[in-house]
């Protein structure tokens, strides 16, 4: 893997690592082998990712991940890029009992001011929320993604913790109604975008596209050197939305899952 690709992955992985670091009931750390997150409440947020390892060090990375995740007794996900080391690393994971996830992830970026496509909606405004009205974001998020109601308190606590650690939360508002949401975290000149969603009854009207278009264009006016990144399911409608905004695919991420119940 070239040094430039290594640096890109390190930059993107670090942004995601920081975003998920501020979650209640979690253990996190990173070292030269990768980024490690174990959440003791929501299994799907337990993951590790090797950022710049070649095949020669992959076993060392796995030794650390098994140690961190109680010798495999906890469900977790290993995320690896589809690069020159992919075939070897995937073989090692399969030999150790990992199962390939059916969902591949497109890691996308928008890096140039002239690449952003504008989709204005004068009826839509973006409100940045505070700890006093964070529940507005939580309500939109749960409507958009249909999360189990049992997780609402945990997600609420997560939002408050992330707000205290410089993660910004926004809702899109039309005619006084909160209809869409997203959040972001900035690391150096990189802004990672997460949790993009629209309430079910308002979907397919272009609100999320207009919301992100407005947000990104305003940030770029402030600083033309900013870069934006996000992740989405490969070949999904969301992916097409991000392409239409000007995002480009940087690499594909393959996920392998360890689940001791299998």
TrEMBL record:
Pfam families: FR47 (PF08445). One of its GO terms (molecular function) is acyltransferase activity, transferring groups other than amino-acyl groups. InterPro entries: Acyl_CoA_acyltransferase (IPR016181), GCN5-like_dom (IPR013653), GNAT_dom (IPR000182). It comes from the Archaea. Residues 124-262 form the N-acetyltransferase domain. This is GNAT family N-acetyltransferase. It comes from Candidatus Heimdallarchaeum aukensis. The lineage of its organism: Archaea, Promethearchaeati, Candidatus Heimdallarchaeota, Candidatus Heimdallarchaeia (ex Rinke et al. 2021) (nom. nud.), Candidatus Heimdallarchaeales.
